Write the structure tokens for this entry.
Amino acid sequence: MKPQEFVNLKYKPKSSDLICLFRVEPNRVPMKKAAATVALESSVGTWTNLELTKTAEKLMAKVFEIKGNWIKIAYPQELFEEGNAPNILSSIAGNIFGMKAVKNLRLEDVSFPKKILSGFMGPKFGIEGIRKMLKIRDRPLIGTIIKPKLGLNPYEHAKSAYESWLGGCDLVKADENLAGQKFNEFEERLARTLEYCNKAEEKTGMKKGYIENVTAETKEMMKRAQLVEDLGGKYIMIDFLTAGFSSLQTLREADFKLAIHCHRALHAAMTRNPKHGISMMVLADFARLIGVDQLHVGTGVGKLEGNLSDIEELIEEIEDKKIKSTKKRLVQDWEKIKPVLAVSSGGLCPLDIPKLVKNFGNDLIMQFGGGIHSHPNGTGAGARAAKQALNATIKGINLKKYAKTHAELRLAIEKWG
Ligand code: CAP
Ligand code: MG
């Protein structure tokens, strides 16, 4: 087997091929050689010439397109074990990132053949199931993350969640780094917060969701998810990258009667450098394939408001485009695999709502951590400000105008405007 045998620019991919789009920066070798090395290392080859068996020959990946720094590689679906997400990633996103033949390498996009898609469960609820569970037909949802992210005790945590729900939040979640620390034990926090969730539903007459973070060693995580289900919870959350794809598969395949909220802590180690790593779109594909119901996709609205410099405008535009493409992927037609509800979160405050709804539409959860809990009048007022901003946006009323008759929103504008 010679590397050049992995390049065939006349090859027409089969519908049964898994196809990857890579951005390649060769390292002192011609592009064709770098591309061939990516294809052989991510399928059946190694660094030196090697006799292939008949079967191995049939499993060879093929570079079928090279355009500038972009290459497309087709992988026979038989190269992968069905229903095994880590296995697919260990080929298409494994050793290749560290090879000498490339200075930079980024896996930008993947398309899956039907047979691979059918090997996974996909989301249990999907967008429709979440809306049905919360009885929220078509508006965007408002969520908050209890803050400070760590350092509250179970009672303080539950109380803050209660004020958030009463103020107008549909969802309250635990932060990505809150688990079973001594200062806020898992069982105690869960039980109290679910009690307050029920109280908030009675008081408001609306469905409310508490998203408990079960991220832990897999056996422990399963025990915690079971406890959420036993106590009548609606959701669990997993930090899917720090927990790992196998543990996400274990959690999903246990098929709890719970919606899975997927946090992406660690993603930026792979997604942030446009020249090297993996796109959020590809990570989102795997989260959907395995079967999460809600996934963080970013915010697009920059931290900077008002007079942005040209470069800042450009950066925001690129960010927007990336997030829109990730969000679009979450709903692309994957046969029986349900669409995933996008979550926009991180550095947001109620004033961002008009832009978020304009950018991302109604199938969206908008989450405000600091943007609710650091409202001048506290958590409840922060939640009311967010709800007021959403109502104004739905009615098409300018926030400043609406704030004339809504004090909490006015105070939010004074603080963050
Ligand atoms: C937001 C958040 C979320 C980030 C995650 C935080 O809090 O709780 O984890 O949104 O980022 O810890 O920062 P704030 P992403 O609202 O106070 O920023 O959604 O981009 O994965
Ligand atoms: Mg967080």
Notes: The longest helix spans residues 310-329. The radius of gyration is 23 Å. Residues 145, 149, 175-176 surround magnesium ion (ligand 2) (CB under 6 Å).
